[in-house]
Amino acid sequence: MQLLYSAKSVLQGQWASPLLLAMGLMTIPLSHAADWRMDTQQANMSFKTTGMMSVEGVFPAFESRLQGDLFKPENLQIEVKIYTDQVVTGKRISDEMLKGASFFNVKKYPYATFSSNRIQIIDQQHSKVQGDLTLAGITRSIEFKVKLSKPRIDANTQIMTVYASADIVINRNNWGMTSFSGLVDPMVILHLKIPFVSTGKESP
Q: Which ranges carry the Lipid/polyisoprenoid-binding YceI-like domain (predicted)?
């Protein structure tokens, strides 16, 4: 997993600035702000369905990237690539079913993608993200809220960790995944909890 992220984007971007500003992090000079990375050991992307036959699983492999004009946070963009061909439910039959043509169709589409097109501040801890989710070759617009945790600062290293979390509800039918409709509800909950960690290196 990779993350292209900078503390300048965090401090000035709409996606994270309300909480970080409230915590007084603007006292960090922008010219000496640290770069950030995703903590791949702690990051989690899971999903759950309900119905007569519920299914739970995780996507253990994904990449995340952020790009944008540091002085125009409304233009910041989040990009995520999720390797659906590595989905894990703990049950071989379920794994094979999800990877098959009726669902993720991983032989043709080994990964899904999300690309944001608008980020709005809701309050000091929440932002609304709008963007396009592509699954099995079908692209649909989605919208969800992101919550940011209070930054944790290591007293010795001064390295900061900020958790971003979200629960995203989608209707699988919108992506052509209509199989087993009598057993599995169409609504799927995607849960994200991703820690961003400062590297301790100064950005130029």
A: 35-197
Task: Give me the number of domains the chain comprises.
Answer: 1
CA-wise closest residue to 59 among 95, 13, 100, 16:
95
What average pLDDT values come out for the chain (204 residues) when binned by 10 residues?
Answer: 36 40 36 55 90 90 67 66 96 95 97 92 84 97 91 86 91 95 92 80 47
CB 106 within 8 A of CB 136: no
> What residue numbers bound the domain in which 72 lies?
5-202
In 3D, which of 137, 194, 140, 139 has the Cα closest to residue 167?
194
Q: What is the CATH number of the domain that holds 145?
A: 2.40.128.110
Virtual torsion, Cα 80, 115, 55, 98, nearest 10 deg: -80
Which tokens belong to 44? 């989690």
Using CA atoms in the order 133, 135, 137, 143, what is the torsion angle rounded to 10 degrees?
-20
